[in-house]
Recover the amino acids of this structure.
């Protein structure tokens, strides 16, 4: 059962003129739901373990470990912790925001970014040397955030009640093998109407939306160390080979190699990941 808490259950440090970026540790209860809210500053939510789902402005982003979701200031959003989650929230003053202020996005978190975030969560603030070191790390972290590769892990969310029923069910059970025609019967629409709704409301086909959902889920489960055979079965693929082929088409590398590079801090596949993401969303 989900727990619902106020969106700010523990103290936090907001950014200031003198310290335009702050890092906060968050350790919410498992499966906690954080209701709709907004901040005066931008936020980078980065799970150290577990995954979070952020929903805002008609989109949903599943963000596993090794990724972070950027939430601009003033954008109302809600957050669901998927299981036991530990995360860092990086608060960034609007004036120094290194990423767009109009929409959320998911970025890769490099080894350097991880190290800077951890260091800033512990840096002292008493001596001139402490402050100088902090300011230098803040500038470098802002630069790293600006150049970080983005991933097209956002899922558009529908307004039509029939699409809502379909998409909500698939988000709970991404392994569902029901075809578009079978879903049409279930939600009370013709197959042609359902296809049109996906195209008009979500700007993608039923198959592309489901694959995007499964890709996000795959990153989460692989990041948790789940065996690839289990990941494939849980996401509805007939075999590990079929899942690996889909994953390689999307990210340009086999899933095992993908996570080895991330865990090792390497970003050699970043360019292929970006190009494959673009192809997937077309």
């Amino acid at each position: 059962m989900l727990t619902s808490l106020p969106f700010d259950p523990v103290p936090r440090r907001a950014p200031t003129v003198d310290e335009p970026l702050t890092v906060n540790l968050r350790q919410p209860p498992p499966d906690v739901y954080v209701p709709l809210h907004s901040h005066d500053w931008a936020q980078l939510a980065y799970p150290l373990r577990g995954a979070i789902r952020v929903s805002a402005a008609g989109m949903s982003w599943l963000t596993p470990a090794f990724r972070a979701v950027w939430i601009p200031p003033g954008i109302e959003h809600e957050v669901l912790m998927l299981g036991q989650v530990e995360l860092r929230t990086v608060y960034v003053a609007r004036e120094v925001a290194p990423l767009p202020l109009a929409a959320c996005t998911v970025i890769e978190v490099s080894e350097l970014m991880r190290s800077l975030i951890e260091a800033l969560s512990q840096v002292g603030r008493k001596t001139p040397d402490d402050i100088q070191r902090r300011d230098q790390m803040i500038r470098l972290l802002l630069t790293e955030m600006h150049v970080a590769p983005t991933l097209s892990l956002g899922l558009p969310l529908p307004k039509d009640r029939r699409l809502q029923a379909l998409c909500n069910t698939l988000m709970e059970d991404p392994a569902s093998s029901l075809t578009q025609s079978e879903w049409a019967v279930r939600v009370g629409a013709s197959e042609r109407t359902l296809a049109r709704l996906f195209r008009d409301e979500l700007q993608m086909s039923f198959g592309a939306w489901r694959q995007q959902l499964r890709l996000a889920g795959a990153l989460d489960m692989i990041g948790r160390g789940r065996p690839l055979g289990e990941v494939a079965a849980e996401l509805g693929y007939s075999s590990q080979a079929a899942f690996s082929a889909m994953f390689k088409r999307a990210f340009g590398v086999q899933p095992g190699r993908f996570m080895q590079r991330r865990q090792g801090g390497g970003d050699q596949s970043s360019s292929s990941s970006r190009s494959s993401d673009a192809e997937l969303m077309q």
